[in-house]
Amino acid sequence: MNQQLTNNIQNFEYLRKETIYLDSACQTMRPQQVIDAMAEYYQEYNSCGGRVKYDWGIKLDEKIQETRKKVLAFVGKSPSEYAVAFTLNTTYGINLVLGQLPRRFAKIITSDIEHNSVFLPTMAFAKRLNIPRVVLERSENGSLSYDKEKISNAIAVLNSMSNIDGRELVNLKEIANDLHKTGGIILIDAAQGISHNWDIISKSDFDALFFSGHKMYGPSIGVIVIKKSLLTTLDIGFIGGGMVEDVEIETYRLISDSDDLSSRLEIGLQDFAGIVGLNTCIDWLKSYKPEGVSTNTHQKNLAQFLFNELSQIPTLKLINSSPSPILSFWSDKIDAHRLAIFLSTQNIMVRSGYFCCHYYLKNLKKYPPLVRVSLGLNNTQEQVEFFVKTLKTIIINS
What we know:
Number of strands: 15
CATH class of the largest domain: Alpha Beta
Distance between the termini: 15 Å
Largest sheet: 7 strands, mixed
Radius of gyration: 22 Å
Shape: globular
Order of helices and strands: EHHEHEHEEHEHEEHEEHHEEHEEHEH
CATH superfamily of the largest domain: Type I PLP-dependent aspartate aminotransferase-like (Major domain)
Number of helices: 12
CATH architecture of the largest domain: 3-Layer(aba) Sandwich
Strand content: 15-25%
């Protein structure tokens, strides 16, 4: 098949024109501005944050604090109520907070469509504390089905958007309110949602939010947004440099300054280039207009077109019931892994398998391995059209 794509989208010009990357749910491509910002740190002020008094370090410290403020503004929260900590990734952040929560909760709640990053830590947490773990169902529209009477004093750990089919936690605000009335808390995996459903996140009274820069066009860095009232109750046991005000032979004192509580979750030296890159990434996301329209409009248009086209292929079984930037399917005519390989020969990159959601996809629904197509801001209408054309050709010839 001859591929004759004519353009790459603005800010991603470094990609070869024949490259069609459709795996943004795994990690997004990075705009040139983010790459440049990280290179600038390495080349012009490579230093250790919070530790030095020379000019490079002062500039870095300013960037770090600026990034914290931008993160809070991005998710619609106040610096007087929330702290921002940087870490390795979403999974690490979830484990870090869960592993240090006070032992006062009656149960832990999660849902059936969670990524292993949530599903496994909630399992381990329940076993360690010997408390019940409840797995609740998410409906086709993404809402959580639950009984208010049965979530008393519970920890809920839920995704705001599924990495299977883009379902959003549309009743997040109500869940948080109901949990708080009974002494519970809600922790949100926003790894997929952070670059899609800001509105749902910002309007909810979450206790902690976890996401990764690599899923929002930024560096591979994790972020925790956490209520200061929760952070100060954590039983800090994972500890190291940069977290203390003083150390004696058998004792230490954690930093107590309200404006620096995030240090309690930042063990040792941080990924400073990643923090700088995230700073630029947030600015870019807020101002970027792919093909002259808003990021939401661009992704919705592509998602609608793709959903319509895939729905018309007779042998294709779509998981999605509605359009989304994330669509998963299988074909009766060809194994998902083989299909992904054949697409790859045409420079089309998709994901195949169970997407780290083994419980729901493999064991609950008993689906065969799936193909997942996840759209990003680097994709164009032309690329999606070529993907659909190529997919149809492969299936017809299978």
